[in-house]
Hints:
By secondary structure, this protein is an alpha/beta fold.
Amino acid sequence: MVEMVAMRDAYGQALVDLGDRDARVVAVDADLASSSKMDLFAEAFPERFFQIGIAEANMTGIAAGLAVMGFIPFTSTFASFATCRAADQIRVSIAQPNLTVVIGGAYGGVLAGKTGKSHQAIEDMAIMRAMPNMTVLAPGDGVEVRKAVFAVADHDGPVYLRMSRDPSPVVFDDSCEFKIGRAVLVREGRDVTVITTGIMLGRAVEAAELLAARGISVHLLHVHTVKPLDVAAVAAAAEKTGLVVTAEEHNIIGGLGGAVAEALGEHRPTPMKRVGVADVYSESAPNDDLLQKYGLTAGHIAQAARSLMERRAAHAQP
């Protein structure tokens, strides 16, 4: 049975453990500590926890000030609010001066607990990717979230840390290595490459099994750092099979698919398909219904891979 862990639970506990190690770590929240699990830090270190209320722009400015004073601030709110409501403050107060602030985006993607399109984040990685100096992380499971929290505390400059709400499959164990800017090879394969980020990792692993049952070998590369992208690993994975599918719970414009297409366009042009939200705003519904309607299931990843292979086979015919 596959272990399931919510990224927000892993985040909350990791932040407490980091706070034990480093007294410079502080937490700044916009009225969602119980949702993001930053309340664990508030309970452990009340003197280092700042509750700003429903004021994301103010939260961001305060975090910038704390960074100037030598602290390592972690902010936390829903990903849609962190990146859209506070975009100007992030740009001017954090990204431009290149301050070390970790912007925690909880509830990334469409699975935001039936809260509807206002709370679902499908543009967040695109917004953060476009800001100079910004590092964009989307861990694949709870293990990577924990490792990311410790990694960003030792990183100079701003970081956007994207997480999902609901429990998701644990793919890695504690021995896995997490290096900012370095992709992870999850599975060796020969027929088609699948490149994934964030919570789509678990679905991509499932898709690889579905394809294996059909005799199709998947080369699976996990990209937890969307910016800076591990261009060498992406190009090598494309070279391995000559076909690439990207998978993300994000708009297909501006996120992982866009980053991979940009890299391959310059370094290794390769036929590819992008699995993600097809440039539409989603709606409120149960998780399984949302994943099915917006093409985010393991089956959709597998179908994208098969369609690429069919297209290559058709072109190969005399």
